[in-house]
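EI: anyone free to look at a 161-residue chain?
SC: sure, send it
EI:
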Amino acid sequence: MPDFNDATKLGTGKEMVDRLTNLIAIFEEPALDFSRNRADGDDILGDAYEYLMRHFATESGKSKGQFYTPAEVSCVIAAILGIRQAATTNDTTVYDPTCGSGSLLLKVGDEATANVTLYGQEKDSATAGLARMNMILHNNPTALIVQGNTLTDPKFKTAIP
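SC: here you go
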């Protein structure tokens, strides 16, 4: 992680504030707005995040399947669910009790004809955090991902509004 309090690299006082302000301004440039870019049906930032998750699984010794559903599998499951042909509305909710990184939730949400609301629960706290970040990067900031064991501590016990 970068140290934003390192005076040797950023200076002190006004110099530090100016340098950090200029750094943040770089990311506000319209040329760096990737929200409309698409790559293979997903946005570039989302694809990059999924790529990193895939490699994180390999490097950490975990199986991808422990927290990440490959896009191809998500497409097949979304097709089996028939979400594209379903009469979804903006009040429709989608829930995954073992959501991992949330890739399946995102694919089902993308296939729906309306802006459905996404909910998920994940046992591992780090993976639940990955899912929340995945939702934000794929333009679903209102998705609700909670941490907990679905079998011993279900968080969604009643119908989701």
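EI: The chain has a mean pLDDT of 79.
SC: 👍
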